[in-house]
């Protein structure tokens, strides 16, 4: 059986979600999965970006991360999406990427894959769950197999978010526990995709 192909597709303005995405890539990579870590295109105007030095800096720091294309979705057996909360919802940059996937969806090429999502917000009750659930709306339309972390690992009792890995940015950069949750979520996604792949091959 060839390795599971996992695409991790994220948007991050100031690095928090990028740190979670990298941890997820690390967790998945250790399972032997073939991993593509991809950022979506930045759409904000330069005036907005340059008004926040940490935003401009993050763009510079991640210049070498390849931009996501619909081909990454077609290629993948499983896709893990990361987005900051924006008013309790998915960031426009990630949504704009998702809105380019109509042709793939129409051909049925987004169905039957494993999907999962992670997020960050500034405050604890600032919309992490609603953001991940909003990604779920997309997965339903695609006919995806949604794999949340639930409380299926001890680390989930520490982070306390069964919907997907999430970090409160006001607490500082993601620490060991949330990074381990991201690694765990990615492993769970890969394991489920591997089981489906084996079952379908048989
Ligand atoms: C336009 C906008 C809307 C936001 N909405 C929320 C929100 O509803 N709740 C919240 O807790 N944080 C909100 N934030 C804060 C971001 O979610 C937080 O800075 C983000 O998780 C950082 O992720 P990043 O470092 O990967 O960009 C918002 C930020 C912006 C710029």
From TrEMBL:
<feature type="domain" description="Flavodoxin-like">
    <location>
        <begin position="6"/>
        <end position="190"/>
    </location>
</feature>
<dbReference type="InterPro" id="IPR008254">
    <property type="entry name" value="Flavodoxin/NO_synth"/>
</dbReference>
<comment type="similarity">
    <text>Belongs to the WrbA family.</text>
</comment>
<dbReference type="InterPro" id="IPR005025">
    <property type="entry name" value="FMN_Rdtase-like_dom"/>
</dbReference>
<protein>
    <submittedName>
        <fullName>Trp repressor-binding protein WrbA</fullName>
    </submittedName>
</protein>
<dbReference type="InterPro" id="IPR010089">
    <property type="entry name" value="Flavoprotein_WrbA-like"/>
</dbReference>
<dbReference type="InterPro" id="IPR029039">
    <property type="entry name" value="Flavoprotein-like_sf"/>
</dbReference>
<dbReference type="Pfam" id="PF03358">
    <property type="entry name" value="FMN_red"/>
</dbReference>
């Amino acid at each position: 059986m060839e390795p599971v192909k996992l695409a991790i597709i994220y948007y991050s303005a100031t690095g928090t979600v990028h740190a979670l995405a990298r941890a997820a890539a690390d967790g998945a990579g250790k399972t032997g999965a073939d991993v593509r870590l991809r950022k979506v295109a930045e759409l904000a105007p330069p005036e907005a970006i340059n008004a926040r030095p940490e935003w401009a800096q993050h763009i510079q720091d991640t210049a070498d991360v390849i931009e996501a294309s619909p081909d990454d979705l077609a290629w993948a057996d499983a896709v893990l999406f990361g987005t900051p909360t924006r008013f309790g919802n998915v960031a426009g940059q990630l949504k704009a990427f998702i809105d380019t996937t109509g042709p793939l969806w129409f051909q049925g090429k987004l169905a039957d894959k494993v999907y999962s999502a992670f997020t960050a917000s500034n405050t604890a009750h600032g919309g992490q769950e609603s953001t991940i659930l909003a990604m779920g709306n997309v997965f339903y339309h695609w006919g995806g197999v949604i794999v949340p972390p639930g409380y299926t690992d001890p680390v989930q009792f520490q982070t306390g978010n069964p919907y997907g890995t999430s970090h409160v940015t006001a607490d500082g950069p993601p620490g060991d526990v949330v990074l381990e949750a991201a690694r765990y979520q990615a492993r769970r996604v890969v394991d489920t995709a591997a089981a489906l792949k084996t079952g379908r091959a048989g």
